[in-house]
């Protein structure tokens, strides 16, 4: 009789969020790590862009300075969100605001470069532009994947029977999804590189 109670007890505990809550949480944390890596890779491309633009467009120094300052803010340690902070709306808003400021500055710089045909024709600039566009797409995809993982986690901790383990055993709190704070910020910027007529 004791041997029959053990599998029944184990099965009932398994259905109460003992394993599903931490599994969903770890999945969301892993997706957040992908988001941070994508933003860091984008930030790593900016010094190269800055050097190319600096040489060809000295008069755009103000816009270039804004990009460099926004990059410094977006990558500063005090703005980063650790996996333990994913349920802190204030930290998420600060991180999102810094990333959106960098996106806006970068978009303004890339648009201002349109005025310099000699720069647009440089092979180094064209390659870098392709890398930046690809990175913006990667950022968008990792944000989508993170938000989906957060949705799965938040659903898990709010639905029966997982809510039992989530509240009693794990003390789970909802995670904060990444939200664009400005309309269209989640869309990668586009450049029209066609020659002017």
Ordered list of secondary-structure elements with their pairings:
Blueprint: H1 2-14, H2 20-56, H3 61-75, H4 89-113, H5 117-120, H6 123-158, H7 162-170
Radius of gyration: 22 Å
The CATH class label is Mainly Alpha
Number of helices: 7
Q: From N to C, what is the helix and strand string?
A: HHHHHHH
Mean pLDDT: 75
Strand content: under 5%
Shape by Cα distribution: elongated
As for the number of domains, it is: 1
Number of strands: 0
CATH architecture: Up-down Bundle
| CATH topology group | de novo design (two linked rop proteins)
Q: Describe the main β-sheet briefly.
A: none
According to CATH, the homologous superfamily is LemA-like domain
Helical content stands at over 70%
Protein described:
- It is a single-pass membrane protein.
- Pfam families: LemA.
- It is found in: Membrane.
- It is elongated, with a radius of gyration of 22 Å.
- The protein starts with a helix and ends in a 27-residue tail after the last helix.
- The chain has a single domain, classed as Up-down Bundle (de novo design (two linked rop proteins)), CATH 1.20.1440.20.
- The longest helix has 37 residues, at 20-56.
- It has 7 helices and no strands.
- Helix 2 (20-56) runs antiparallel to helix 3 (61-75) and helix 2 runs antiparallel to helix 6.
- Helices cover 71% and strands 0% of the residues.
- The chain is mainly alpha-helical and 197 residues long.
């Amino acid at each position: 009789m004791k041997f029959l109670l053990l599998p029944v007890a184990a099965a009932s505990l398994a259905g109460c969020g003992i394993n599903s809550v931490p599994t969903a949480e770890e999945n969301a944390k892993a997706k957040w790590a992908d988001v941070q890596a994508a933003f860091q890779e984008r930030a790593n491309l900016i010094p190269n862009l800055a050097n190319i633009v600096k040489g060809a467009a000295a008069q755009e120094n103000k816009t270039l300075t804004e990009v460099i300052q926004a990059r410094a803010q977006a990558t500063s340690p005090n703005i980063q969100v650790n996996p333990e902070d994913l349920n802190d709306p204030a930290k998420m808003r600060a991180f999102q605001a810094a990333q959106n400021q960098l996106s806006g500055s970068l978009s303004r710089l890339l648009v201002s470069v349109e005025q310099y045909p000699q720069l647009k024709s440089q092979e180094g600039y064209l390659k870098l532009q392709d890398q930046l566009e690809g990175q913006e797409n990667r950022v968008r995809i990792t944000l989508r994947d993170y938000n989906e993982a957060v949705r799965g986690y938040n659903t898990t901790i709010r639905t029966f029977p997982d809510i039992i383990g989530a509240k009693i055993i794990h003390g789970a709190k909802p995670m904060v999804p990444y939200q664009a704070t400005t309309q269209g910020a989640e869309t990668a910027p586009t450049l029209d590189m066609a020659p002017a007529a």
